[in-house]
């Protein structure tokens, strides 16, 4: 990732409320990066747990035990903590070491790990998914369809005739809602003269019933 995409994904600022639309190149990079993040192990291998335990042993030198007991403890810890991602597990273990006087139990390490903020990779994965989904939504709202040229549009309007030709006339009141005959404003005297060739004042003056109304 580079450029704008890197700033959006790797940065610390919150994503903007109106997410930018990724270009085709950015979309391809984002999808590739998201696949890498999703393919990352979601659990801790015995070796990862071993690294965590090694750090805890250094943090608690008084907790040194025999080789046999250390091996048995490592097996139990590895089995009970393997479902936690390695980076989250390490962060939780180090958080426990900062606050606990004695070597933390499995339950204490799990609780500390679960209380940790999401690691950077999780935040980046979420940002990537949001940007990709925003591009998909924007594409659905505004599909990139081939539009006709102005002259082609004029031919289509002329062929349809009637209200379509009138609607295409920029000098006429714009249609509003579902009623194509209703203008966006009340027609003026000039509109009547131009559209019907009749001055409404003259028409009313010559019709006693309209004058009475």
Task: Pick out its properties.
two-stranded antiparallel sheet; 213 residues; single chain; mainly alpha
Alpha carbon gyration radius: 36 Å
Number of helices: 12
Distance between the termini: 74 Å
Task: Provide the succession of SSEs.
Answer: HHHHHHHHHEEHHH
In helices, the fraction of residues equals 55-70%
Total strands: 2
Adjacency order of strands in the biggest sheet = 1-2
Report the uncertain regions.
none
Instruction: Name the structural class.
Output: mainly alpha
Strand content: under 5%
Overall, the morphology is rod-shaped
Report the mean per-residue pLDDT as an integer. Answer: 76
> Largest beta sheet, briefly?
2 strands, antiparallel
Structure characterization notes:
By secondary structure, the protein is mainly alpha-helical. It contains twelve helices and two strands; from the N terminus they run H-H-H-H-H-H-H-H-H-E-E-H-H-H. It has helices spanning 3-10, 24-39, 46-59, 67-81, 86-99, 106-114, 120-141, 150-160, 162-167, 189-196, 200-205, 208-212; strands at 175-176, 179-183. It has a two-stranded antiparallel ribbon. Strand 1 (175-176) and strand 2 (179-183) form a beta hairpin. The protein is rod-shaped and about 110 Å long. The protein starts with a helix and ends with a helix.
């Amino acid at each position: 990732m580079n450029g704008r995409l890197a700033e959006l994904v790797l940065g610390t600022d919150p994503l903007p409320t109106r997410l930018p639309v990724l270009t085709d190149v950015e979309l391809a990079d984002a999808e590739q990066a998201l696949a890498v993040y999703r393919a990352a192990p979601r659990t801790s291998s015995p070796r990862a747990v071993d690294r965590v335990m090694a750090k805890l042993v250094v943090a608690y030198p008084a907790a040194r035990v025999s080789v046999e007991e250390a091996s048995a403890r490592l097996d139990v810890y590895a089995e009970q903590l393997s479902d936690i991602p390695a980076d989250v597990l390490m962060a939780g273990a180090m958080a426990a070491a900062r606050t606990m006087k004695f070597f933390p139990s499995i339950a204490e390490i799990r609780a500390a790990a679960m209380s940790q903020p999401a690691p950077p990779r999780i935040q980046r994965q979420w940002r990537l998914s949001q940007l990709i989904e925003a591009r998909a939504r924007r594409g659905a709202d505004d599909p990139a369809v081939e539009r006709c040229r102005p002259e082609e549009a004029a031919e289509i309007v002329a062929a349809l005739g009637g209200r379509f030709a009138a609607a295409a006339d920029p000098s006429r009141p714009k249609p509003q809602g579902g009623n194509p005959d209703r203008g966006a404003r009340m027609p003026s005297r000039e509109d009547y003269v131009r559209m019907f060739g009749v001055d409404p004042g003259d028409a009313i003056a010559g019709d006693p019933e309209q004058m009475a109304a």
